[in-house]
Design a protein that fits this description.
There is one protein chain. By secondary structure, the chain is mostly helical. The protein has helices spanning 3-10, 14-40, 42-48, 50-65, 72-91. The protein has one domain (3-91). 85% of the residues lie in helices and 0% in strands. It is rod-shaped, with a radius of gyration of 19 Å.
């Protein structure tokens, strides 16, 4: 299992970890489906690459939206925001 997949699963640095997954899926679609497109056409390409497209769109979704409310990104982000807020209020 790649480190990107592990980071996405635990929700840590989700947006950054999704970028290599996006690149992997783009390369996989290009290398495995280009010959299908040339030989059998557009519709066969779409039919044979449903899983590839769903993984590609899932990676794009994670890049745009992030890990969600239960991810480690959110938990650590809230702690950092709280610490910054406490430091600012203590200085004033």
């Amino acid at each position: 299992m790649s480190s990107s997949v592990l980071l996405v699963l635990i929700g840590f640095l989700t947006r950054f970890a999704s970028i290599p997954l996006l690149i992997i899926m783009l390369v996989a679609i290009y290398t495995t489906k280009s010959q299908v497109f040339i030989e059998k056409g557009f519709w066969e390409l779409l039919h044979g690459s449903r899983t590839d497209w769903s993984m590609l769109l899932g990676s794009i979704f994670l890049i745009v939206k992030g890990g969600g409310r239960w991810s480690l990104d959110t938990i650590f982000g809230e702690e950092i925001r709280d610490n910054i807020h406490q430091n600012k209020s203590g200085l004033g």
